[in-house]
Amino acid sequence: MPTADPPVSRASGVELGLRQNAAQFTLLVAVNALVGGVLGQERTVLPLLAERAFGLSAHTAVLTYILAFGLAKAGTNYLAGAWSDRFGRKPVLVAGWLVAVPVPLLLIWAPSWGWIVAANVLLGISQGLTWSTTVIMKIDLVGPARRGLAMGLNEAAGYLAVAGTALATGYLAAAYGLRPAPFLVGVAYVALGLGLSALVVRETRDHARLEARGHTPRADGRQDHLHGELTQRQVFVQTSFREPALSSASQAGLVNNLNDGLAWGLFPVLFAGAGLGIGRIGVLAALYPAVWGLGQLVTGALSDRWGRKPFVVSGMLLQAGALALVAAADTFLVWAGAAVLLGAGTAMVYPTLLAAIGDVAHPAWRARSVGVYRLWRDGGFAAGALLAGVLADLYGIRAAVWVVAGLTAASGVLAAVRMYETHQRTDPAPAG
Predict the structure, then answer these.
(1) What is the longest distance spanned by two Cα atoms in the chain?
(2) Which residues cross the membrane (predicted)?
(3) Stated pTM of the model
């Protein structure tokens, strides 16, 4: 457990608010865009590389890299929250970029599929450390009034970079081959991200301590049992199972990334099987995260005004409908429309779930709660890869998509029944 430090205040130069911390916040948005870009280098190219360079035909075997990525990222998310409290946010962020250094090089030179899987273990560790820490740091900086907007900007930057890089690498692969050209983009991202994080990013832990000093309980008393310091075990139990809003967010996050793991690993194979070329597959692979990324600029801020629960429930149900459309369609235009709907549904859910965690978790243990939530959420990558791969091998890709669509709809219904509204809608401070 982290040791208690002397309280900090505005007199020490630490203030909460988006405007007061605009420079560091903007820098962290840029850093998270680079984090997303490192992930995006794989989305179009790797499923095709599995079949064409390594001769993998079984869908379960192809998806081993997503399984490895999901397990590594989920576990590292959990550790990132605890380590951010213990050692500070910046050291964890820099460590994540250091782990990423060999990833694009392994993807370029891998002589066998096992090397690709190993690269994705490192990628998962890196993404868990870097993405989790940028989330925690932005929540630290802005305080409670603009939390949805902050998460919208953070996730928009990351997933717009995923989309842009997926599109760019698709065109690079079509023009220059599957290796090495697409992964040279990743080399540049890692170098720039490491340099900015080590030399320019500043520590934000004092901002969380300042917020903890002025933290006020909800008027309805719903979260009174969560105030003050909790042990790591208590944080895990509350976030995973016991606290209705935290646990509802955790299950919705898991199912959201379960269907994203399906989209990442099997959609390019489905589209290729229908006769689409690499360029068009790259467009579809980019369209979904592009709408997801852009949409979060709107949905995160709106959840600060309208509340979190409506976006979570509606977003999960919209994703389910979009997945059903993917399963039923067989043309580029219909798949493009489904990708837009899937991106819109994910945009409604993604920043809102993170904001809900920030609403409920006390600042003293919020970083650890974010880590637990992201453990469950990114465990969805592993669950999605395993479930979708097995179902696709047994019954075909379309059957796998139908099953995941049903699970996504069930998740939305569960959130509607169990989750309460977490955001106390008050007028934000003018300076925030």
Answers:
(1) 64
(2) 21-41, 53-72, 92-109, 115-136, 157-177, 183-201, 311-329, 335-358, 401-420
(3) 0.79
